[in-house]
Specification:
The complex is a heterodimer. Chain A is of the alpha/beta class. Helices cover 41% and strands 18% of the residues of chain A. Chain B has one domain (4-193): Pyruvate-ferredoxin Oxidoreductase, domain 3. In chain B, strands 2-3-1-4-5-6-7 form a seven-stranded mixed beta sheet. The chains are: A alpha/beta, B alpha/beta. At the A-B interface, strand 8 and helix 10 of A face helix 1 and strand 2 of B.
Chain lengths: 398, 194
């Protein structure tokens, strides 16, 4: 079905097509519209979901944990401070192995107060044991949401389906929707093996994990996360059969013979593609790698895709405060450690787009120009830089 | 990206510039285009300057760019008091046009435009909306003016399409449909080009 809608509508529409059992949610900009649209579907009798209107995000996640432990399909949506307020429960959900699906509409964290997009909210909880999948546009966030439950329920891990606040959540774009029947048969019925309401199998969820058991639980989570990549590929392959749209852990754009590449997450990847496309016409071999799945980290895919590229900028839309680059940079750099020296690209960290700072095609052109200079010099002058900061002489302007 | 038309809207919070931008995206979508319609969000409140954007392309996969628009082909100004405080023609293509909601002539408005050399159009959207809708809701006439000047959508198709959506939206209030359709037609007719 050809249609047009905003990223928030696309997620709410996917939720409607899936018709999950329970939604616990508390509104926060820019994800508010998701429970808002979804509540209307409930009020109109189009879905059978139990909506639990709570007084905070802490309770929203608690609701999901309770519902999921009971054996229900549980969903929520949040952003920024709302996600931060869920923090301790994120770990409870993950360690209890509850396949909760959360729509995250990425927004900066407060300090100073800001409602616009960056990835500091979901990057902050990257180590909480949730699978994280990011989208470039409305089509992708819809497609990712439909793939979420088949991945999460198989791996028994919770999953975040992320999109960029306002940039895609509030932008109307064309979209291809699947038929309700296609979605329902793709997602299937949720039939967990163990759950609280199974009367013949008494079960405790979330008990105290004393030292002799705690590490076994954590190792189990770690193994599940490692294995989840196989399931992510399987689900993507099945999804391609019904939609004609292919997904992997990363997307490579013009990378086959690229000399210069940017690695990034989310909506700005589309802007980078437009810049790379333009530069290719001028004979400059520019490429883009979009990281779709950040947890588990696509280290093998990145190592393969970046082998032999001359110079690479790894771009983080969050400030890690590590003193030498953001989280995507640190992990990408680690993934390249085992490459032989001749195949290892010159790598630098660029922090960009914080608090909604706009990034344009010409910004990317400036980045590619800088990469070309780096390749020419054969050395990275400043490993850790920022993009578009006024008066920043070490940074990239454009 | 050469076939993508970019439009920037300037208005004040509460005047419906964002709605007009989304309506234009809708109308262009209905005529088979690839569209983007998105407002720029900040600490917006009633009366504060706001900006909204459209990218409209023929077929294909559309534009993958996700940034604001700095070099638009067309600019639509829903509130002419913004001419004093906002550089509305910033980056505007000289082969394009600016459309201002104003009673003034294009020549008079041009004097406020810091040397812009492209086409200047004016339409008295306030009066049109008072006359047809009984209220000052300038966005409907400005939407029609944007279509008339930019040619991003075939005019007859646009009018037929708007009538369809309005009839659907205001099924219980047919007089609203009539008023809006008159506002659209009147604006296309009264538009002054200079």
């Amino acid at each position: 079905m050809r249609d047009r809608m905003s990223g928030n509508e696309a997620v709410a529409f996917a939720m409607k097509q899936i018709d999950p059992d329970v939604m616990g949610a508390f509104p926060i900009t820019p994800s508010t519209e998701i429970p808002q649209y979804f509540s209307k579907y409930i009020a109109d009798g189009e879905v059978h979901t139990e909506f639990v209107a709570v007084e905070s995000e802490h309770s929203a996640m608690s609701t999901c944990i309770g519902a999921s432990a009971a054996g229900a399909r549980a969903i929520t949506a949040t952003s920024s401070a709302g996600l931060a307020y869920m923090w301790e429960l994120l770990y409870v959900a993950a360690s209890s192995r509850l396949p909760i699906v959360m729509a995250v509409v990425n927004r900066a964290l407060t300090g100073p107060i800001n409602i616009n997009n960056d990835h500091s909210d979901s990057m902050g909880c990257r180590d909480s044991g949730w699978i994280q999948i990011y989208a470039e546009n409305n089509q992708e966030v819809y497609d990712n949401y439909i793939q979420a439950m088949p991945v999460a329920e198989h791996c028994r891990l919770p999953i975040m389906i992320c999109q960029d606040g306002f940039i895609t959540s509030h932008a109307v774009e064309n979209i291809e929707l699947l038929e309700d029947e296609q979605v329902r048969s793709f997602v299937g019925e949720y039939d967990p093996e163990h759950y609280l309401l199974k009367k013949d199998e008494p079960l405790a969820v979330g008990p105290y994990g004393i030292s002799p058991y705690y590490m076994e639980i954590k190792k189990g989570q770690a193994e599940a996360m490692k294995e989840s990549r196989t399931r992510i590929y399987e689900v993507a392959e099945a999804f391609a059969k019904i939609s004609g749209r292919s997904y992997g852990m990363i997307e490579e754009y013009m990378m086959d013979d690229a000399d210069f590449a940017v690695v990034l997450i989310g909506s700005s990847a589309g802007t980078a593609k437009a810049a790379a496309h333009g530069l290719r016409e001028a004979g400059i071999k520019a490429g883009v790698i979009k990281v779709r799945v950040f947890r588990p980290f696509p280290w093998e895919e990145l190592r393969k895709a970046l082998r032999g590229v001359k110079a690479v900028a790894v771009m983080d839309k969050s400030e890690g405060f590590s003193g030498w680059g953001g989280p995507l940079f640190a992990e990408t750099r680690a993934a390249l450690y085992d490459l032989e020296e001749s195949a290892r690209p010159l790598l630098q960290s660029l922090v960009y787009g914080l608090g909604g700072r706009d990034v344009t095609v010409s910004t990317f052109e400036a980045i590619y120009e800088d990469l070309a200079r780096t390749a020419e010099a054969g050395t990275v002058e400043h490993i850790y830089r920022h993009v578009g900061v006024r008066g920043d002489e070490e940074g990239i302007q454009g | 990206m050469g076939n993508t038309v970019e439009i920037r809207w300037h208005g004040r919070g509460g005047q419906g510039a964002k709605t007009a931008c989304l309506l234009l995206a809708d109308a262009a979508f209905n005529s088979g285009k690839q569209v983007q319609g998105f407002p720029e969000y900040g600490p917006e409140r009633m009366g504060a300057p706001i900006t909204a954007y459209n990218r409209i392309s023929e077929g294909g996969s559309g534009s993958s760019v996700h940034s604001n628009i700095y070099n638009p082909d067309f600019v639509v100004v829903v509130d002419e008091t913004l001419l004093k405080s906002v550089d509305v023609t910033a980056g505007l293509s000289e082969n394009g046009a600016i459309i201002v909601n104003s009673r003034k002539s294009p020549q008079e408005v041009r004097r406020q435009l810091r040397g812009y050399k492209g086409k200047v159009c004016t339409v008295d959207a306030g009066s049109i909306s008072q006359e047809t809708l009984g209220r000052n809701i300038p966005n409907t006439p400005m939407l029609a003016a944007a279509v008339e000047v930019s040619h991003v959508i075939d005019k007859d198709r646009f009018l037929a399409d708007m009538e369809g959506s309005l009839r659907h939206k205001f099924a219980s209030k047919p007089q609203v449909v009539e008023g809006n359709m008159r506002a659209l037609r009147m604006s296309m007719k009264q538009l002054k080009v200079g």
